[in-house]
Amino acid sequence: MLKKELRPLEYINDDYATLNLTQLKENTFFLDKPILLLAAGPSFKKNIAWVKKNHDKFVVVAIAAVLNTLYDNNIKPDIVTHIDGYEGSFPLFDGIPTHEFLKDTIILFGPFALSKLRELFTKEQVFYHESGATYFEGFGSLQAPCVGTHSLMLSLLLHTKELYLLGLDLALDQETGSSHSEDYADRVIIDLQNKDTIKNNITVSGNIFPIKGNFRESVYTTSIMHVSVQSLHENIDKIMKEDQKIYNLNDGAKLHHTITTQTEEIDTQKYKRLDKKTLQEKLHKLFVKNSAYKLRNDDIKELSRKLETNTQIFNLINQYQKGVSYANKDKYIYDMLGIVSEIVHAGNKEKDEVLSVYYSFFEYVLPLMFDLLNTQGLKNDKHHIKKLDKPFIKGMLNISKIYSDTVKNFLDTRCS
Question: Residue 376: which domain range?
Answer without folding.
Answer: 297-414
